[in-house]
Design goal:
The two termini are 27 Å apart. The protein has 529 residues and is an alpha/beta fold. Strand 18 (303-308), helix 2 (323-327) and strand 19 form a beta-alpha-beta unit. The protein has helices spanning 293-298, 323-327, 348-353, 355-372, 391-407, 437-443, 475-485, 510-525; strands at 6-10, 44-45, 57-58, 61-62, 66-69, 78-80, 92-95, 106-115, 121-131, 143-150, 163-164, 174-182, 187-196, 206-215, 255-256, 259-260, 284-287, 303-308, 337-342, 378-380, 412-417, 446-450, 493-497. The protein has an eight-stranded mixed barrel with strand order 1-17-18-19-20-21-22-23. Strands 2, 5, 8, 10, 11 and 13 form a six-stranded mixed sheet that branches.
Length: 529
């Protein structure tokens, strides 16, 4: 999207959230908890419980399995498939009516979690029998089925990280599906589901599922259990009294590993400094190539994002990044964080071809532009990078860029992910990547993320009804929770874009948008990061 102006904001100080604010879909103090999945006491140790559905049914769902369905299915869709089976005398049956108008790909299924060995490879198979509507004209037009494994073991039959088999589309015969995945956590989720694709051809569609197998190493030893929720770091700040609120101001107390009591150590390469704005919770502009510069000043912003040209093709094309010099002459901008976003999008094939080498080269290009606009405080690289099959390439580039930037005395605003990125949220902690996201965020000065609302509620945080704000506008809070649980470093977040899911002009009133932006500012004020 190329809307002028966009909005950016940075999470700020530990001010209290104003009374009466709604915390829809959000935990205590505005957190978005995402506990690490662990195998339950009833989870099989490397084996499937009730693999052929012969162990009885409860509310239509085979025992020791968990049933689920999309919200449009208000009727009973799970039942005992005693009328058709591949092994034994029972199967799991799904009844999938056609989706209502305006909906597609409506699904239902079953899943269970299995205790596994992290890093080990597992293979699952299952048998499916499809009975689509008689009006279906080709295989898979109306009805398909899937078998999936989730290496992160989420309590969901359709989780972020589920790896699905090739879909089963051939009707009126038993078909075997297979899928293989490497476990990341000590629990893996095995799921089976059916998909009714379009609102057409009536309600007569059914799927039978049976004869599940699961193979791989059997875990031994003590079954791992869930970790406690992380302590809110804001509660760990010690109370101080007296005229001087600095503890141990003269460094006269004992030293441990070279650091005096009451103080924490930190360091970085290069000569840059970390800065934090004084005007917390204010939303600022993203200035691209249109609009009035005065608009940036009117907002009295704590953050401003300025876009320049493509440094690969023309390093002297500063675009509007030069506005930082003009704005910095106003006293109100002395503590504003200026984010420079050189527009490298046209040269992405060049930068992605050799991500490590080109990441370091890009830092040097930013260093040259910093010599022309020294007021830029941190530098953005990719904007909404690919988080699909090229996630590793993205991490390679961003990590190399941050390392070289620090050597040159620059600060980075890393990743700048799109609203729902990465699609599999567990990639944020998956250390099978080298470097991993943990490696990147250990050195990044800021994490950039877009915080638009979801497709149904549109708003970032106000009036949430159908979308989970923790999956959209507040998604970085889930990252924070994941990292806190592991005692990993998590950098401050700059929301480098944000507002409604689609364009708001002509759709929502300025008052509605203002309310959403102000409420987002209050969320930001609730924590320091």
């Amino acid at each position: 999207m190329h809307v002028c102006p966009k909005l950016v904001a940075v999470v700020g100080s530990a001010l209290a959230l104003s009374a009466g604010a709604a915390w829809a879909y959000v935990g205590v103090n505005g957190t978005c908890p995402l506990p690490t999945p662990y195998p339950s006491p009833s989870a099989g140790a490397g084996v499937v419980n009730n693999p052929s559905m012969e162990g009885g049914f409860t509310a239509g769902v085979a025992n020791q399995w968990v049933g689920w369905k999309d919200s449009t299915y208000t009727i009973q869709v799970h039942s005992d498939g005693s009328d058709r089976f591949s092994d034994g005398t029972h199967s799991q049956r799904l009844y999938l009516p056609q989706p209502p108008p305006g909906y597609s790909d409506q699904e239902a299924g079953i899943y269970q979690q299995i205790w596994v060995v992290p890093g080990a490879t597992y293979t699952a198979t299952a048998r499916f029998y499809l009975s689509p509507p008689t009006q279906q004209t080709y295989n898979g037009e109306d009805l398909v089925a899937w078998l999936g494994l989730d290496p992160f073991g989420q309590e969901s039959g359709d989780g972020y990280g589920m790896i699905w088999s090739v879909n089963v589309a051939t009707p009126n015969t038993w078909i075997t599906a297979s899928v293989t995945a490497k476990a990341v956590l000590p629990v893996m989720t095995l799921g089976l589901k059916g998909t009714r694709k379009f609102p057409q051809h009536g309600n007569e569609a059914r799927v039978w599922m049976d004869q599940v197998t699961f193979s791989g190493p059997i875990p031994t030893g003590e079954r791992p259990g869930p970790e406690p929720d992380p302590t809110d770091p804001e509660t760990l700040i010690p109370a101080t009294l007296g005229s001087n609120l600095v503890a141990n101001p003269g460094f006269e107390e004992t030293f441990t590993n070279g650091v005096s009591a009451g103080w924490n150590k930190w360091w970085t390469t290069g000569t840059g400094t970390w800065k934090q704005s004084q005007r917390m919770g204010k939303v600022g502009p993203g200035r691209y190539d249109c609009g009035d510069l005065n608009e940036c000043s009117y907002m009295n912003p704590k953050t401003v994002l300025l876009m320049g040209g493509d440094p690969h093709t023309n390093p002297n094309n500063l675009g509007v990044m030069g506005d930082a010099t003009t704005l910095a002459n106003e006293s109100k901008f002395q503590d504003t964080i200026f984010v420079g976003r050189p527009f490298i999008d046209p040269s992405l094939p060049y930068y992605e071809a050799d991500p490590v080498t080109r990441g370091r080269e890009y830092a040097e290009q930013c260093k040259y532009q910093e010599s022309l606009v020294p007021r830029i405080d941190c530098w953005q690289a990719f904007n909404e990078p690919d988080w699909g099959g090229n996630w590793q390439r993205t991490l390679n580039f961003e990590h190399a860029f941050a390392q070289r930037a620090h050597e040159l005395g620059l600060k980075t605003c890393s990743l700048n992910l799109s609203t729902g990125s990465p699609g599999n949220i567990w990639r944020m902690i998956d250390e099978t990547y080298e470097p991993s996201c943990r490696d990147l965020l250990a050195i990044a000065d800021y994490l950039g993320h877009h915080v638009y609302g979801g497709p149904n509620d549109q708003m970032m945080v106000a009036n949430q009804d159908r979308d989970d704000a923790c999956s959209f506008g507040l998604r970085p809070r889930r990252f924070k929770d994941l990292y806190d649980r592991r005692a990993w470093r998590f950098p401050p977040v700059i929301a480098t874009e944000g507002s409604t899911y689609g364009g708001w002009i002509g759709m929502f009133s300025p008052d509605t948008i203002t309310n959403d932006l102000n409420l987002m500012g209050q969320y930001m004020n609730a924590t320091r990061w």
